[in-house]
Design brief:
This protein is an alpha/beta fold and 118 residues long. The chain contains two helices and five strands; from the N terminus they run αβαββββ. The chain has helices at residues 15-31, 48-60, and strands spanning 37-42, 63-68, 85-89, 99-103, 110-114. It has a five-stranded mixed beta sheet, with helices on one face. A hairpin with a 6-residue loop joins β4 (99-103) and β5 (110-114). The chain is globular. The chain starts with 14 loop residues before the first helix and ends with a strand.
């Protein structure tokens, strides 16, 4: 089904498209010399399109912080590629499953959260 969601980010319907739009907004802000940042807390990061978009954001001057539960295919901290990206992998028996996306969004901090129960 072609569902429209106004307040939810749903993986199979609008998550990628919305995240790309939000990253593009941060890139535009950085190009204008404004503060731009992204904090993502996710299970893993292997999606090539998302990785390329985060590299583009880093190269534009967007500060990106990644908190991951598992595998990360992005190379953080590489000069001229991802020097504005830091990545932390968290593995612990108390680790919870919330996904969190925070964007500076022109000073009006935009927060999205997704929670999965076990």
């Amino acid at each position: 089904p072609n569902e429209e969601f106004k307040h939810l980010l749903v993986g199979q319907f609008n998550l990628r498209k919305t995240l790309i739009q939000l990253i593009d907004f941060e890139i535009a802000e950085a190009h204008q010399g404004k503060k731009a940042s992204i904090l993502l807390k996710v299970n893993s990061l292997q999606d090539e399109e998302m990785i390329e978009k985060l590299y583009e954001a880093s190269q534009a001057g967007v500060k990106v912080e990644l908190n991951l539960r598992g595998i990360c295919s992005l190379m953080a901290g590489k000069k001229n590629l991802s020097e504005n990206i830091t990545a932390y992998s968290i593995v612990d028996r108390f680790l919870e499953h919330s996904r969190i996306f925070i964007f500076h969004h022109g000073g009006q901090q935009l927060l999205a959260r997704h929670h999965t129960r076990l």
